[in-house]
Amino acid sequence: MIIIETISFSEAVKYPFKVPQRLLYILLLFIPIIGWLALFGYAVRLVNEFIEGMYEGLIKLDFMEDLKLGFMVFLKALPFYIAYMVILFATTYVNETLGNLVNLLLGFFVIPLLAVNFFRKQTIESFFEFDVLNIVRDNPGEYIVTVLKQYALVIIFAVLSIVLVGIPAMFFTNSIFVANLYGRLVERKAGHGL
Question: Considering the entire predicted model, what is its pTM?
Fold first, then answer.
């Protein structure tokens, strides 16, 4: 059993630049649908690397495999996002402020962990495994710090977007801290049979 260490903030900032030429994968955004799906599949593989505590640098893109993975994961994610949009629409219909509050709370406390769980297991059901949210209940301080570090990383890369390198760095690391937390608290716990 590999013990996954907590990734430091400085290591997360450096991560996308360890193999800088792979930042060019972001150019696939200019190829509608096919490029987007390939990047989505690539992002799923990256999140799995983060869960396993592997931070050597951006992995190599395998266009056809990542395209297939991206397509399948996209299809499997649709039921969750349809349910999410229905909830947001219903709460916003009742009261716009309530809708905004629900969106904020779900976006901060629910979606990040469920998305990482889904990327790990890649089943429709895994997006609805709400017991993974026990991490938030059992470790509220650590979870909040993790998500705030993720936001801080996004802000740094957003500033670096002025010189363009921040755009792919932001895209490729958008779940690095939450995936690390998941690897440490969910996978380790499952590995110990607790």
Answer: 0.91
